[in-house]
Amino acid sequence: MHLVLLSIFTSLSLTSEAAEYRYHFCSNQTTFSPNSTYQSNLNNLLSFLSTNSTRETGFYNTTVGQTQTPENTVYGLFLCRGDLATIECQDCVSTSTKEIVQLYCPEEKEAVIWYDECMLRYSNRSFFSIMEDEPSKILWNLLDITEPNRFIQLAAKTLSDLVPLAAANASSGAKRFGTKETKFTDSQTLYNLVQCLPDLSSFDCNRCLRAAITNLSKSFGGKRGGRVLNPSCNVRYEVFAFYLVQAVPAPGPGPKGKISTVIAIVIGVTIAASVVLVTLLYCFRRRKARKKSDAINELNSEKSDSILNYHATREITSVESLQFDFGTIEAATNKFSDDNKIGEGGFGEVYKGVLPEGKEIAVKRFSMKSLQGLEEFKNEVVLIAKLQHKNLVRLLGYGIEGDEKLLVYEFMPNKSLDNFIFDSKRRSQLDWKTYYNIICGIARGLLYLHEDSRLKIIHRDLKPSNVLLDHDMVAKISDFGMARIFSENQNIANTKRVVGTYGYMAPEYAMEGAFSVKSDVFSFGVILLEIISGKRSSGFYLTEHSQTLLAYAWRLWCEDKVLEFVDNFMMESCSTSEIVKCIHIGLLCVEENPQDRPTMSTVVVMLGSESVALPEPKHPAFSVAKFMPMDEISVNDLTFSTIVPQ
Ligand SMILES: *[C@@H]1O[C@H](CO)[C@@H](O)[C@H](O)[C@H]1NC(C)=O
Ligand SMILES: *[C@@H]1O[C@H](CO)[C@@H](O)[C@H](O)[C@H]1NC(C)=O
Ligand SMILES: *[C@@H]1O[C@H](CO)[C@@H](O)[C@H](O)[C@H]1NC(C)=O
Ligand SMILES: *[C@@H]1O[C@H](CO)[C@@H](O)[C@H](O)[C@H]1NC(C)=O
Ligand SMILES: *[C@@H]1O[C@H](CO)[C@@H](O)[C@H](O)[C@H]1NC(C)=O
Ligand SMILES: *[C@@H]1O[C@H](CO)[C@@H](O)[C@H](O)[C@H]1NC(C)=O
Ligand SMILES: *[C@@H]1O[C@H](CO)[C@@H](O)[C@H](O)[C@H]1NC(C)=O
């Protein structure tokens, strides 16, 4: 098996990851009227919470209206997951303060909302420092685990071990948070997290977490991931790293200081990057391991460096031609000033720059020492620079000085696709034709990676935030941080280390680590359906409609009501036949069996032709029946008879 892990240095996230919504609760018993004092107090509260989310503690509580309008007082707080960098916390809080009133609880006085990254809560009564474990919600991963009994015992024990750590009497403002990894099998690691509100007493935190763990164990039905959400504490376990794996769990205040050590870096990265980081650390360790012993090659048995060098030396005449003068880049970015910073990723920051001749660039800056040899770095840069296609973001070159390594990309003024499709306002700024062109662009970019470039490349992490948009809204696939190169006659590979983003991952990859061009096709299908519906696919967890996006699309397809899937605003500007065709293609791409999914070349043909007859889609992966969470079963109107807890 010949695979090459492309350089982590090429990962480019111009935008931080959007928050992943999970659940909310707001009682319609107490509501306020539009334009009331309560509403304006609430709006102030939400903006205070949002502006205070830069705090390092990842927590803030405040009250609005107590003196002027006592009967309309609003109390509120947010809590970010303990491992997040402030910028990510800020992102989540800012998203949640908007979405809660716009999408979920427009007129309720009391509300709580959970995202993967943070929780936001407000009420017209004071709830600070009070332990409240209701409303409580259990969410399950949709996939099953082998040896469930041993598994839940291990999970419950590990989570329980974390309780004293999180509940420890710490100084005020300290995080009440703990994470721990344990081996379930040789190839499966169990990741565990517990967290309380920091304003709880040690006693209450302890009580809340223990009850949550008990609840989780009691209703355990063999799922490989699960979590309890309630207003005071939360616990979660998974078999993938859903938080940043830290060198030291942090029950106390998070480490402060500059990004200068690996630990600091570990703390300062985005969720998406965390997965990249795991890959990085993993590769890093592998590189080291390989130096020690060539025999240690248990994972993919790839000879990555040799293939890489082979391609690089054969095809590139001058590495130096891609090298930028460090000083030029420094000047272009105003000495990497904060004003020029446009993003932050796992390996450093991204800056906007303007070259002397006026060309705008995006510069990714890495400050870690010797993560990779200079030659390797150059070779990999050259390799990526060779990938040139209208629908791939273009690497212009690199810069090196001392330990600093820079990558220079063309600048994408319109950021990424997720900024449009999941934002209620910006979404409607584009018309169907533009979205259609974006869809076609992604398809062509992917086709190039899969078939048309000289290498066969599997992206492995295709999602809207990795699709950047240029001046003309042309889609450019970015972030090849997890990409793999296949040799010409290789079709499938296996990895024990599943990286990528749940929600866009094909089932065979998420479950068995098997990836191929068809796993990218799956991700493409998910994006297509997201663009059309304006809704996020949350992968193995359920969306607000108590079903996944794919299941929802499939149900409407089967009931011949597929136009209901289309976002209202889009109906106004679209051609019905085109949009139905796109949904059809989307469903073909997300079919359960990878062999049934079309290749990207077929997809491009389908998209480009009005007359081509499409096969009937089969049942998509992750159908409703398979991923109904345990506690959701009784309240749903779908076909329960087919639910088979596996
Ligand atoms: C509140 O929600 C419940 C359940 O969703 C619904 O039956 C009830 O009519 C709602 N009450 C009001 C006042 O909207
Ligand atoms: C609330 O205020 C907005 C803007 O001031 C106005 O357009 C809207 O009609 C008002 N709504 C109600 C119910 O008074
Ligand atoms: C934080 O919240 C307080 C109110 O609790 C508010 O006065 C302040 O402006 C907010 N913003 C910052 C940056 O502190
Ligand atoms: C925050 O909560 C504490 C109790 O945990 C309370 O004493 C304090 O007044 C709250 N702060 C604000 C601004 O409401
Ligand atoms: C919150 O509002 C509800 C109804 O709007 C009211 O019945 C309740 O007394 C209020 N709670 C407090 C503590 O003011
Ligand atoms: C935490 O503080 C309380 C009260 O100050 C004390 O009774 C308790 O023993 C402390 N617990 C720990 C684990 O230090
Ligand atoms: C445990 O489950 C019960 C019943 O659903 C619920 O009332 C309680 O709040 C849950 N406890 C926690 C800590 O989530």
Please describe what this structure looks like.
There is one protein chain. By secondary structure, the protein is α+β, with helices and mostly antiparallel strands. It has 4 domains: about 1-130, Killer Toxin P4, Chain A (2-Layer Sandwich), CATH 3.30.430.20; about 135-240, 2-Layer Sandwich (Killer Toxin P4, Chain A), CATH 3.30.430; about 315-410, Phosphorylase Kinase, domain 1, CATH 3.30.200.20; about 420-645, Transferase(Phosphotransferase) domain 1 (Transferase(Phosphotransferase), domain 1), CATH 1.10.510. Helices cover about 35% and strands about 15% of the residues. The chain is built from 18 helices and 22 strands. The chain has a 5-stranded antiparallel beta sheet. It has a 5-stranded antiparallel beta sheet with strand order 7-10-11-9-8, covered by helices on one side. Helix 3 (about 150-165) runs antiparallel to helix 4. Residues about 1-15, about 250-315, about 540-545 and about 625-645 have low confidence and may be disordered. Bound molecules: 2-acetamido-2-deoxy-beta-D-glucopyranose (7 copies). One 2-acetamido-2-deoxy-beta-D-glucopyranose binds near residues 168, 169 and 202.
Name a few traits of the molecule.
646 residues; alpha+beta; Killer Toxin P4, Chain A; Phosphorylase Kinase, domain 1; 4 domains; 5-stranded antiparallel sheet; 18 helices; globular; disordered N terminus; disordered C terminus; binds 2-acetamido-2-deoxy-beta-D-glucopyranose
Number of helices: 18
The small-molecule ligands in this entry are: 2-acetamido-2-deoxy-beta-D-glucopyranose
Q: Which strand order spans the largest sheet, edge to edge or round the barrel?
A: 2-5-6-4-3
Q: How many strands? A: 22
What name is given to the CATH topology of the largest domain?
A: Transferase(Phosphotransferase), domain 1
CATH architecture of the largest domain: Orthogonal Bundle
What is the terminal separation in angstroms?
32 Å
The value of Rg in angstroms is 24 Å
Subcellular location: Membrane
Pfam family, one: PK_Tyr_Ser-Thr
Signal peptide: 1-18
Binding site for ATP: 364
